[in-house]
Structures are given as structure tokens and as C-alpha cells.
Amino acid sequence: MAVLEIQTDDAPVLRQKAVSVQEINAELSPFIEDMFETMYEAQGIGLAAPQVGVSKRIIVIDIEKHHPEYPRIALINPVITLTVGEELGEEGCLSLPGVRGMVRRAALVKVEGLLPNGSKIEFDASNLMARVLQHEIDHLNGIFFTDLLLPEDQELLELQPEASEKTVTENENSLHGNK
Known about the structure:
By secondary structure, the chain is an alpha+beta fold.
């Protein structure tokens, strides 16, 4: 396995709509494992292929440490087919180091896509998993979480410096580590 280079906000691949994967072949598995390795090295919990310079519709997520009901997953050509409700939560991004913001996202999503073995999967996700799925699928469409920020929500983030060290650490680990 290899740690790949994470692209930063000025990389053109991050603002382009990623290309659908047409063929699941033997080359895909090592790339997906490299994505997981890169995400772990960066202390993140989600990563999209464009973030490592590859314009393909592939995401990896691992929030199992925080939510055991969601084992680590790699999705190919993921699509959100249903959104329900709304919640406000803090996000960051491995491609935007040091930037954090409060983002409104659907509280529940239904997602479908392909697993690395080619089988189709469809599932509902809520809480942190719903947020990470939306964040990573946005990356596949050339969207950063900063594109979704509303000024009135950012006032809530400004209050955070008063939080305890424990809360700050938990928040830093909440979405993508430093992502």
C-alpha cells in the first residue's frame, strides 16, 4: 500500500465532476487500499478519489471507531437517492487544511453504489455517516463544504474557542480528522 498525495484547494481536479467508473477490474482494489491508507495517514474518516488527483467516482469512509454500526466502506459511483431532514454540523477537509465551518446537511440519506467486488449496495445512513457521505459525494461533483457555508451558521463556530480541550479534540476527530 502507498500513501497518495492529497490535493489542495487550488488543484483543478477538485473542481471538476469526477468520471464514472465503467469497469471494475483488478487495478481498482490496490487504488482503493491506497485511498484508505492515505486517509488513515492524514487522520481522516473519509476521502474521495479527486482528493488524491484521480477523477473517478470512488469514495472511502471509515467511521467504525465512532459508530460501530457503520463498518469501513468503499463505494464506486455512489449516488444519494433520498435526503430527509436537516442538521447543522462542523466540517473540515483534508484538501483544505485548517479550515472548518458549520454546514447544513440532510439528517438522513439513502445511498446506492457499487462495492469494490462489483455488487450493488443500497443503504440508509444518519448522523455522522450521512454527513460524511454527503461531503465525499460533493467532492465527486467538484463541490467543497465551503461552497455550502451560510454566514449565520458561522457565528456558531466562532463560539468554539471557549470549548474545553476535550471537546475541541472530539470535534477535530468528528469529520475527516483535519479534513
